Amino acid sequence: MSLFALSPSRGPRWPVATQAALGIAVPIAVMTLFGQAPLGYIAASGAFTVLFAGSAPAVDRIRILPFVAAGLIAAAVLGVAAAATPWPWLVGIGVVLVAVVSAALCFGFRLGPPGPLFFVLVFGLSAHVVASSPIAPAVYIAALAAGCGFSLVVAAAPLVLPRVRARRARPFAELFPGPTLDADARMLLLRVAIVAVLGVLLGLVIDPTRTYWIVGSAVAVIGVAAARRAAFERGLHRMLGTVVGAGAYALLALLHPAGLWLALLLGALQFTIELVVVRHYALALVFITPLVLLLTGAATGEIGALDVAFERIVDTVVGAALGAASGLLHPRARAAR
Description:
Strand content: under 5%
Order of helices and strands: HHHHHHHHHHHHHHH
Helix content: over 70%
Shape: globular
Distance between the termini: 21 Å
Largest sheet: none
Number of strands: 0
Number of domains: 1
Radius of gyration: 19 Å
């Protein structure tokens, strides 16, 4: 995974990129037209659903993605519930539980990339938005569930073509082999558990409301590849990509995008991300960082807050360093052979 070269193409990415762009842009645009833009920003988080099983045929994806959507909604419910209690430390415990449980399910059932990352982020974003905005918990969950549902419709759209429907669907035992954890999966799960606990503890020192971003950055570095070198390379990519991406956010925030313009901007960012993420991780993060910051800022009314960009850089560097360091738990490649 070089910083100066693109990985080989693994087939056309534009179908998944288009679905992801529609999943994030359409809810924002529609709810803006109805005068409920904040609900559109929340529903746009449901676009994370279509980021999974991107290489699977449509007949298989539409059977996999409902489980992903259910997991994202469950993570949001837990995040909202934790934020509604008078005990802020419950959010930190929830981050650890969601990270470990989602990692066990993703690795145990071979869900593949992007792994447990978005379940952690949805939990943290849900807790953060509900705690810092006047949106009622039930309304938040309903909006996010509607976004997940819309993403499922978008993912199912190719099935209107007879040639797509004619493809034989694989049995569930092949779609979700398991639950089993081989040696590599157990090591990945152990790394997720370690970085989740350490990330939350570090978050208590840095800022308890930002622990989910630290843990999410560490989990993103771990990914789904059980290799020491991959951990260091992904950590470097995440640090550099996030720093450049935070600078891009600062420039975009000066424009104060809102409404339909913000929907178009986020859709374009999401489309670009899906095109490049499998070929260059750092380059993808140049677009991922402003997308998440703009989406979170819109949901909480903080777009344009440059201190948030600086905070995200700090959180990402800490989390990426944790994720990369956890790669030392893997044996050296030569020793493993």
